[in-house]
Structures are given as C-alpha cells and as structure tokens.
Amino acid sequence: MKFKYILSLIGISGIILFNSSCSKYLDLKPENSTYDEVFWKDGENVNRATLGAYALLRSSLKSDRSYFLFGDIAAGIVKPAGDDWNMTSFARAGGYKFSYAPYLEGSLWNWTRFYGIINQCNLIVEQTDAMDIKMFEGGDAEKKQYISNAKFLRAYTYFYMQRVWGDVLLVKETFKDPQNIADMMRSPEKETLAFCKEDLAYVISNLEQGSSKSFASKGAANALMAQIYAWEHDYVNAEKYANETLKFDYALEDIKDYRKIWKGNSKESIFELNMLYSESGNEFSKDFFNRFLSSVSIPGKGNGSVWTIEPEFLESEFKEAEARLDSISLPMPNDGKMKSIRKYDDVVFYRDNLTDYAVSNNLVLIRLADIILLRAEAYYKNGKSGLALNDLNTIRKRAGLKDINVSGQQLFNEIFRERRRELIGEGIIQFDLIRMDMFEQFDEYSAYYSADRIANKGYFWPLDMRNLLPQNELLTQNPWWKNH
Prior knowledge:
two-stranded antiparallel ribbon, 6% strand, globular
C-alpha cells in the first residue's frame, strides 16, 4: 500500500502528533496514554505518524542550513557568503574551527531535534507492532511497511548523528516515564551502528522496492547499509551491499539531463526528501537552498548572500574542462572567476512579484553516483584496484572527463577527489574526509588538522554542554573541544 499524501491537505504541523514539551535532553513521548490508546487503533493514523517522521527529518536537516554546513562548508569546498559572518570560523578561511558559531549553537551543537525523529520512530515501531493486522487496509504487508519506514528513518538518523557529533545517546525504545529519565552515557559507535544495521536488515527483509524515492525502499536500505559498513571500514560488507544496491533499477542520468537529479524522483536518485513546490503543500522552502543561488536565478539577490565554490578548490579540482561543471555551476554576476552551485535552482515565483518564491528541488540524500564511488573505495580496500578504477572512470566519463590510469594511494586519492567534484553541495564531503582519513593527504586540511586534533576527534562538532549537561550529568564533551 502506498503512503497517502495528506501533507498538502492538513499541513505538516497537523501530522507531527508527538511533539511533547521537551523532557530532559530528549524529545520524548507525551504522557497522555489515554490518547495513545485511541490513536493506535487506526492504520490511517500510523500513516499520519510516518509522514510526520519524514517531516521531522526534513525540518531537522534544514535547521539553519546545517545539512550543508556540516557536509560542505566544513569540508572546505563551499565558501560561505559575506553576509554569513558567523559561519566563517568553521569554513576553510577560519581554519575549520567549529567552536565559534554565534546564533547557530542550537542547530550545530545541539542534537535534541534529532531525538524528536528517534522518538517518533520508536513510537511507530512499538505501537504498530502491537496492532492487529485487521487495522490496516493492506493487512500484514502494510503493517510491515510502516515499521520498515520507521526503522529506516531511525537508522538514517542515528548514523547521521554519529557522523556529525561522534558517539550518541542510544535510545532504543520509548520511555514509560519521560519526566524522570535517568542520566545516560554516550554509547560506543560500535553499539549504535550495530543497532542501525539490525534495523536495516529488517527493512531489507520486509520492504518492497517501491516507486517513490521519497520513502524508504529495499534499495535505499542496502545503500545505507553499504555506507555504514564503509564507515566502520568493513569494506567486504560495504562492497557486498553496494553491489546489492546496484541490482535495482537505478541508472546514471546522462550529462545533458544531469540537473534532473534534484528535480525529484530521477532514475539516479535512491533516497530523497520531498521539497517540491505545490500550492497547498508545506514541504517546499525559500530559505534552505537559496544561499546557493545568485541574482541569475533570483532577481535582485546580492552577491553578499551567495555561497560559492571555494576559489582554491575550483582552481585545483576543475583544471580540466568538463560538462559536469558547466551543468552545475554559474559564474557570479560581476565576478566571472567565482562560481555558484546551481544544483538547486528550480525557482518558482508564486505571486505577481519577484520576492515570493520557492526553490522547488528535492534534497537527494543518497544517489547512484555516490554508491558507485563508494564501491570503488571498497574495491580498492579489498585489493581489487582494476574494478575500483573502472567505477571511478564510469563517473568521470559521465562528467565529460577522460579515463585515467592510476594505482596505489594515488588511486584512492583520486576516488576521494572525484567524490568532491561529483557530490559538491550535497552535504556529504566532510563525512568522506573522516571515513577515508584524508586530512593528512591534502595541504588544505593538514595545515589545520594536526595529529593531536585527529587523535582527539576534532573533526566532530562540539556539543552544547551549557544546555545539555544540566539535563544529563553523564554527558561528556568531544575530547578536542574541551580545550579548543
């Protein structure tokens, strides 16, 4: 059974049914058990709750554009706008200093909003599992669909948090008394990721592929499993699940259709969040993608509010002419040497003026080119350099670049460099830096990431101890940021 698209009818705020007052440091279950007894008697309400979980993920990633700050600006490949003075410190020009983020502490140092997603998913898993299949129009298959979507979102959220802040507070179930939660220690990465893989194994076993890329699928679960194994440096399993992903009906877009990827449900997309404009919907946004856009797309927009490709990165990584760069970038008005990213430039002006607009693109979280290059990484680590080179050249060929023939560390470096070129502006590269341990391979990072900083995991973001510690006395700060 397909999800019923009711977001556009009653709005996101009407679907997020479990936003309780914040209970200590986690956003947890409301106390109204009588209401729960009524709510969890209808399969349609589970549909509402599931759509609410997706809405929570979308809102969490959008917060202060943190998705791109974590993945692109912190990786030194995107330069913040001149107006964004409070982002300079953690960009390349600021030496990747994440401990100074005025007015952004709530989104960059505080993970509470992500526990709203975790709580929603825990509720769905527990309550739906206890419901009789007669409550679902599609019977047991529909019931498992909802549980699978909740488990997929839970796994995605925990894995995302782990890559941003390091070890998390692993909450596997709802609390019976959310007002009296015992203090918790951060869980080891191994335990958290084992829980994620357990969730994804359920999804792979119980969920069909489906046609919409905006919901969990068997292919998306395999892709996420490959990413988790690669993060753990278990490249045998990373290769296995990358190959499983490629068995599904995904295909690279032709370079002439390259920007279709971000217009929604493309053949290359594996998992994305819906943010397309509709007159009655609430998923679209003006203030998330628009920092990438200049006055070419939005008349009157000043250069001072546009994020651009870092000039040094543009010069060093795009030396060869390629069709890909021409497709996804534009020269800045009045400064042709600078380029903005135009992956998200499908702008809709919905009133008779040029100020009321929406950026009607989807946020693509996992796509085929990402998984092909991840498989290249796994092949290399598994001693299959020839296959790794083939995958690398597949992406280069689509970009309009010539095949290369390299080996050893140079091949591994080229896989990383190709990931930066291919996935720029997609919130990913900082996590590649950490996973692939590339901080000492490139001068642009080694100048700021000392051996001591790497050893003390200074690539993770600090936690907002001022607000989080009083609510959980067992919480600890990430080592590097205790003294920096």
